[in-house]
């Protein structure tokens, strides 16, 4: 029997994962995850690999024999957070000399041996494609050696590993459909930490979705850094690799997963504006259970900045994508990511981001100021010359513009009724449930006698910037 539980702090960072499985090897492990959904999904693979070795999970890191941090390198601050955390875990070794501390994920890949040698904070460093090697690496450390495996792979997709669902409400789950990234956005460290892009066998993806449905899940989110370039049995040049095997692109994969059951909602993330084709949106429009929501990071509203970012599209191209989505699915939720203060960004270029943000009326946006990352194209080619104070001021500008968008969008929902999948208790009250609409808007309503995993129709009566408030009708 598995028991699972998770603790989330407010920023959805530093999530502690708990799992126990028999038979135990008498050792307890504690995993904390940072970064993107992909990393949280990977922690579920790691938990599965180690549960088979008999590691019992705990949410109490003080009583654990093995502490693993699944880390993120996307911005400098993400790495600083992990370093602080590692120092505090290290101090536990005074009372527990057998304690092992490991770093997994993107920071492991980026820093490699230096995490062991220079900083002396950890015993174990394991990159994102080396998790199958964890049991033997742990044995090596127990034998007194430090151990590292940061080899990146061109094939590894962990397709055969059944993840232990950790970050769990029992209603929605992640399914990784691909790994790595072959884009070279000039600001981004991911291609260096996650390696080459590779897609997972569609049959194993559908099988995982069916298994989740059988276990009572009602929603899956298909994950990849650029889901639109998912391809099975198709070469990068577009040729068929094996004539005896059917080919699958992302639009087709979406439909395969949607057909698993009309009761299973399908979401996906992340779409790339340069690759997102109308056939994906058409597939969405054909199936009621494929949610009408697209996360389409724009990064900047100025074509010259987009060029420096090496994003592969212009402002006009992006606007055309949005128009096309709204033509095919008029009521489609769209969110985005923005970076302010990228190298050489002028005030006029920043104004273009603001005007695009207002024009697009995004439902939501994740906004960051630029953080230079080692080895990236931008670090080598451009000067990080926008002063921090200006980066932050511009970030405040976009946050404010988006706050107005969100409020406008949410106000438009008042009086309307939406189908909501109940996820669980709302953050603030055990009397209220929360769940999402197809457009990914969070709705809070009195729980009455409903249950998580049920679909209900909620009439919206009020809203805040981030939440719709209503009653089941
Ligand atoms: N694959 C996704 C993004 C993954 S990273 C895509 O292509 O859109 C998530 C977000 O972090 C990015 O969209 C970007 O907005 C932000 N980000 C990435 N690198 C950054 C950096 N060096 N500084 C600030 N923000 C960054
Ligand atoms: Fe990074 Fe660009 Fe790949 Fe996204 S598409 S992960 S931003 S390199
Ligand atoms: Fe961070 Fe790596 Fe994801 S850098 S955002 S954890 S792919």
3D structure, described in words:
It is a single chain. This protein is α/β, with parallel strands linked by helices. It folds into three domains: 22-149, Methylthiotransferase, N-terminal domain (Rossmann fold, 3-Layer(aba) Sandwich), CATH 3.40.50.12160; 172-413, pyruvate-formate lyase- activating enzyme; 417-472, OB fold (Dihydrolipoamide Acetyltransferase, E2P). The protein is built from 14 helices and 23 strands. A hairpin with a 7-residue loop joins strand 1 and strand 2 (15-20). Helix 8 (250-258) runs parallel beside helix 9 (278-286), helix 9 (278-286) packs parallel to helix 11 (315-328) and helix 12 (347-360) packs parallel to helix 14 (388-413). The longest helix has 26 residues, at 388-413. The protein is globular. The protein starts with a strand and ends with a strand. Bound molecules: S-adenosyl-L-homocysteine (SAH), iron/sulfur cluster (SF4) and FE3-S4 cluster.
CATH superfamily of the largest domain: tm_1862 like domain
Strand content: 15-25%
Radius of gyration: 22 Å
Please state the average pLDDT score: 92
Approximate helicity band: 25-40%
Distance between the termini: 38 Å
Which geometry do the CA atoms define? globular
CATH architectural name of the largest domain: Alpha-Beta Horseshoe
CATH class of the largest domain: Alpha Beta
What is the count of β-strands? Answer: 23
The unreliable regions are 1-13
Structurally, how many domains make up the residues?
3
Please describe the biggest sheet, giving its number of strands, its sense, and whether it closes into a barrel. 8 strands, mixed
Helix/strand/pairing category = alpha/beta
Bound molecules: S-adenosyl-L-homocysteine, iron/sulfur cluster, FE3-S4 cluster
Number of DSSP helices? 14
Q: What is the CATH T-level topology of the largest domain? A: pyruvate-formate lyase- activating enzyme
């Amino acid at each position: 029997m598995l028991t699972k539980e998770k603790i989330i702090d407010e920023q959805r960072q530093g999530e502690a994962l708990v799992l126990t499985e028999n038979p135990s090897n008498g050792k307890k492990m504690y995993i904390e995850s940072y970064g993107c959904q992909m990393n949280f999904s990977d922690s579920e693979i790691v938990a599965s690999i180690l549960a088979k070795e008999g590691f019992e999970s705990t949410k109490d890191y003080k009583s654990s024999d093995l502490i693993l941090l699944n880390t993120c390198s996307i911005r400098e601050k993400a790495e600083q957070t992990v370093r602080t955390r590692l120092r505090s875990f290290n101090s536990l070794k005074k009372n527990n000399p057998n304690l092992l501390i490991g770093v997994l994920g993107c920071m492991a890949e980026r820093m490699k041996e230096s995490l062991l040698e220079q900083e002396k904070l950890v015993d174990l460093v394991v990159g994102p494609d080396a998790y199958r090697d964890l049991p033997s690496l742990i044995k090596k450390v127990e034998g007194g050696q430090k151990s590292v495996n940061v080899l990146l792979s061109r094939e590894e997709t962990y397709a055969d590993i059944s993840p232990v669902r950790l970050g769990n409400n029992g209603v929605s789950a992640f399914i990784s459909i691909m790994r790595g990234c072959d884009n070279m956005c000039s600001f981004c460290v991911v291609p260096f930490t996650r390696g080459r892009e590779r897609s997972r066998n569609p049959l194993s993806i559908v099988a995982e979705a069916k298994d989740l449905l059988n276990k009572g899940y009602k929603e899956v989110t298909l994950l990849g850094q650029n889901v639109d370039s998912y391809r099975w049995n198709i070469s990068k040049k577009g040729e068929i690799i094996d004539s005896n095997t059917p080919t699958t692109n992302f639009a087709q994969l979406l439909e395969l997963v949607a057909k698993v059951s009309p009761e299973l909602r399908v979401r996906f993330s992340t779409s790339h504006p340069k690759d997102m084709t109308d056939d994906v949106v058409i597939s969405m429009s054909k199936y009621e259970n494929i949610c009408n929501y697209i996360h389409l990071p724009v990064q900047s509203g100025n074509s010259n900045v987009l060029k420096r970012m090496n994003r592969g599209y212009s402002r006009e191209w992006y606007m055309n994508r949005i128009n096309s989505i709204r033509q095919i699915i008029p009521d489609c939720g769209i969110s985005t990511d923005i970076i302010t203060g990228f190298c050489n960004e002028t005030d006029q270029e920043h104004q273009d981001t603001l005007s695009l943000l207002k024009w697009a009326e995004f439902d939501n946006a994740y906004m960051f100021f630029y953080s230079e990352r080692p080895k990236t194209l931008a670090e080598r080619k451009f000067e990080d010359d926008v002063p921090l104070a200006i980066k932050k001021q511009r970030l405040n500008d976009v946050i404010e513009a988006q706050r107005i968008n969100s409020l406008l969008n949410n106000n438009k929902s008042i009086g309307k009724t939406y189908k909501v999948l109940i996820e669980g208790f709302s953050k603030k009250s055990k009397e209220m449930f929360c769940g999402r609409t197809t457009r990914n808007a969070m709705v809070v309503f009195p729980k009455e006698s409903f249950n998580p995993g049920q679909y209900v129709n909620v009439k919206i009566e009020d809203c805040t910037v981030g939440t719709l408030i209503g009653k089941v009708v």
